[in-house]
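Provenance

Sequences were taken from public entries as deposited. Structures were produced by running a predictor on each sequence independently, with no templates supplied. The record for Putative IS3-family mobile element-associated protein from Octadecabacter antarcticus 307 is shown for reference.
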Amino acid sequence: MQVDRSTVRYPSRRGDDAELRNAIKRVLRERRRFGCRRVHVMIAREGFAVNHKKVRRIYTEEKLQVRRGGGRKRALGTRKPMVLPDGPNQRWSLDFVSDALTDGRRFRILTVVDDFSRENLVLVADTSLSGQRVARELDRVIAERGMPKTIVSDNVLCTEFTSMAILKWVQNTGIDWHYIASRRPAVVCLQTMRGGKPQQNGFIESFNGKLRDECLNETLFATLGDARKTLEEWQDDYNWRRPHSALGNLTPMEFLERRIIDKMTA
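Predicted structure for Putative IS3-family mobile element-associated protein:
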């Protein structure tokens, strides 16, 4: 026919995958900061038996990629890995996250996670969170699920964790409270000290990053009540519905349930 091969092609027989495309878009409308791998986990839960490469192709064709801010800092040399607890309630991690209301008023959020299951135990927002308030929140969680063996926190940037109220609480409970190392070891003046490196408290730093990326940066809070309601809903979603890659794409609660079943059948 003397037709250039570059202009002649068989018509594509590939389906438009409209249902799959709609499912991917629906997940991302609800969870805008999810990447391709986590989207694949979510649609698989809805019954779509599809290869992750096909999900990635559609994800790219629809231009649904998540924009990431800034480059990643990479450590030089080797780093000693943090030992993972082999059961729940062995080690909790604590930290604070700050945000602002639409009128500019600042508020803080106390975050607590179980390092074994990655379960979010506490997510409390207020304009002021003293050491006494931290102790009360910990007492409330302990009354519901038992006492941890160890608690890990910063010792400089979050001075509430070194207050007299916390020191007295630690003495009364007998819990081993571990402060991560300062970046400047031989420092006398508290005002010149710097907080420890993030990887020394990596579990709570990872959680705080997800909280800020998926919730705080995506939502405007008019009042403190709005912030508390949104955080409560996000905490419930994080513990019960959001897949966690470090847990084999299980939710924290699914991970705990599977561990209980494994121990019963062992």
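The chain is about 40% helix and 15% strand.
The longest helix spans residues 224-240.
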